Amino acid sequence: MKPQWRREQDMLELGRGHACNVDGGAAGFDDSSKFDDDGKLRRTGSFWTASAHVITAVIGSGVLSLAWSIAQMGWVAGPVVLLLFAFVTYYTSSLLADCYRHPDPVTGKRNYTYMDAVKANLGPRQVLLCGVVQYANLLGTSIGYTITAASSMVAITRSDCFHHKGTKGPCHASNVPYMSMFGFAQIILSQIPEFGELWFLSVLAAVMSFLYSTIGLGLGIAKAVEPHHDHGTVTGIAVGDPSLGYVTLNNKIWGICSALGNIAFAYSFSMILIEIQDTLKSSPPENKTMKRASLFGIITTTVFYMSVGCAGYAAFGDNAPGNLLTGFGFYNPYWLVNLGNACVVVHLIGAYQVYTQPLFAFFENTLSSRWPKSKFIHKEYFLKVPWGEPLHFNLFRLVWRTMYVVMTTVLSMLLPFFNDVMGLIGAFAFWPLTVYFPVQMFIVQRQVPKWSQKWFWLHVLSVICFAVSLAAALGSTEGMISDLKKYKPFQT
Predict the structure, then answer these.
(1) CA proximity to 206, closest of 100, 59, 95
(2) DSSP letters of 278-308?
(3) Which parts pass through the membrane (predicted)?
């Protein structure tokens, strides 16, 4: 999504390029094929690019926590909860896709961001709440992805160490340097000006997500078929005497709540759905293409989620690790485990950008509008390179995006708790962004009569999902408090 001044600059450059004909005479500017009906540069996104964005956004680090989440609930409740989250996510994403244009979902005025859609349908009062929740969630996702990428890099380091020095060797590893490396890569990639230019990262990330999910699935199946193996139970982790390896009833309840947050995080992508939809061509209508892409993406990810989560639980039973791939540290072939963790890192490098670009665009557009004559904010610099077109950069974009990446990296170092951070982010975003705003906007846009059957059931859905989010937030917070009692920041 380009800031207004960038779009105007593009139009001027196109105008200069077409202002004269081949004979040197003046010619009228007529290049309508390069612009949409609202005067902005024509979008080129398709079902496949949108599907890649969705899969990149949905199949993230959350898939690695699903075996642990199923272990908290058992063989019956675990898979059922996964399917329920998939259904709710697809249903509400379909409602949200119809809110891209207002008032008519096909011919109405475009809403370029999630907040634009909320403002058009619900008015300015709820925009502030939406903005706080949406961008706080994007910030939290940046932190969560940094933690996950570092944990996978640490797993690779420790796996190599164990296989060279033995399982009793001193194979401690700090996640701080790996978080720093991940942050450095994001500083460079964050200079990509806009969301629409991320398609190659999304395609690469989608491929990586399929690859490491397949590796996790294969390793889980291989370990699950070993003889004399604990394959889990119907009710999950057992309650009993802690000295005998069981958990207390309170810990069981908190674990289930935290698992709900982890599953909610695994399915969260609604906060960037409108931004993805804004990359699509206007024909066929964007809402139809987006619904197809959402359905394809969610079905694809649910198949992987169910397979990986169940295979992981069958492999480790009630002792399933919080991060599935880190649980295969002593498993052969260890190079395959390392490959899976490497794919996680590559995937999260791209996914980090998919989630942060909307936040970058919002902040930059806001300041560009407030200070339209600031050279620091608006001036573009060009750097000639021998192998292609000149690279362009902006000092404001360089400084502020670098500061953002540094901030998220430092926060990740302070709170490197994989499951609890994933659960808290999922809980914080699930109800407001995935359910509440899509439901309320749909009711307003379609003018659903108050107290009608549809109005009633939509509100029932919203209330149930609010209760789930609240329980997940409490469970993840309790887990994080317990972790903080034992953790020393910036140490191994």
Answers:
(1) 59
(2) TTB-SSS-HHHHHHHHHHHHHHHHHHHHHHH
(3) 47-68, 74-92, 198-222, 253-274, 295-315, 335-355, 398-418, 424-444, 456-475
d(Cα 434, Cα 417) in Å, to the nearest integer? Answer: 24
> What is the residue-averaged pLDDT of the chain?
81
What sign has the CA pseudo-torsion 456, 460, 462, 466? positive
Q: Which helix (H) or strand (E) holds 109?
A: strand 109-110
What pLDDT is recorded for position 89? Answer: 92
Where are the alpha helices (H) located in 123-236, listed in sequence order? 127-165, 176-189, 199-224
For 29, the token pair is 């500017």
Domain 46-484 has CATH 1.20.1740.10: yes
Token pair recorded at residue 226: 């070993």
Distance of CA 374 to the CA centre of its chain: 33
Q: How far apart are CA 79 and CA 66, in angstroms?
A: 10
CB-CB contact of 280 with 43 (8 Å): yes
- 90 conformational bin, left if phi > 0, alpha if psi -120 to 50, beta if neither: alpha
Q: What is the pTM of this model?
A: 0.76
How far is residue 221's CA from residue 217's CA, in Å, rounded to a whole number? 6
For 62-78, the pLDDT digits (tens) are 677 888 899 999 999 99
Domain ranges of the chain: 46-484
Q: How many CB atoms lie within 10 A of CB 302?
A: 20
3-class state of residue 84 by DSSP: helix
With H, G, I as helix, E, B as strand and everything else as coil, classify residue 110.
strand
pLDDT band of residue 13 (cuts 50, 70, 90) is very low
Q: Say if residue 103 is preceded by a cis peptide, omega within 30 of 0.
A: yes
Q: Which of 161, 182, 185 is nearest to 173 (CA)?
A: 161
What does the alpha-carbon distance between residue 314 and residue 310 come to, in Å, rounded to a whole number?
6
Q: How many CA atoms lie within 13 A of 296 on its CB side?
A: 16
If residue 382 lies in a helix (H) or strand (E), which one and from where to where?
strand 380-383
Residue whose entry in the numeric block shows the structure tokens 């991320």:
198
Measured CA distances, 347 to 148, 265, 266, 406 (Å): 11, 16, 14, 20
Give the integer Cα–Cα distance in Å for 43 and 31: 15
Q: What is the SS3 assignment for 264?
A: helix
